[in-house]
Amino acid sequence: SENNTEKEIQNRALMEELTAERREKERLIRKTQHFQATLSLVHQMTENAMLTHDVEGVE
């Protein structure tokens, strides 16, 4: 049963590693989503500024 104990220890270590990797992946996904939202906002603001500028330019 010493062999089993060793396997259990290895399995637990692998599970912890996978959990850590999954957390890191989720963190990166959240960062990416936040970045995309920010980018989208900047894009909207740029478009709005250009539209406003176009309207002001026509006189």
* Main sheet properties: none
Summarize the helix and strand pattern as letters. H
Radius of gyration: 25 Å
Query: What's the N-to-C terminus distance?
Result: 88 Å
Instruction: Specify the helix fraction band.
Output: over 70%
Q: Which shape, going by the Cα principal axes?
A: rod-shaped
Mean of residue pLDDT?
A: 92
| Secondary structure category | mainly alpha
The DSSP helix count reads: 1
By DSSP, the count of extended strands is 0
Structure write-up:
This protein is mainly α. 95% of the residues lie in helices and 0% in strands. The chain is built from 1 helix and no strands. It is rod-shaped and about 85 Å long. The protein starts with a helix and ends with a helix. The model has no long low-confidence stretch (mean pLDDT 92).
Characteristic terms for this protein:
mainly alpha; 59 residues
Strands, helices and their partners?
Layout: H1 2-57
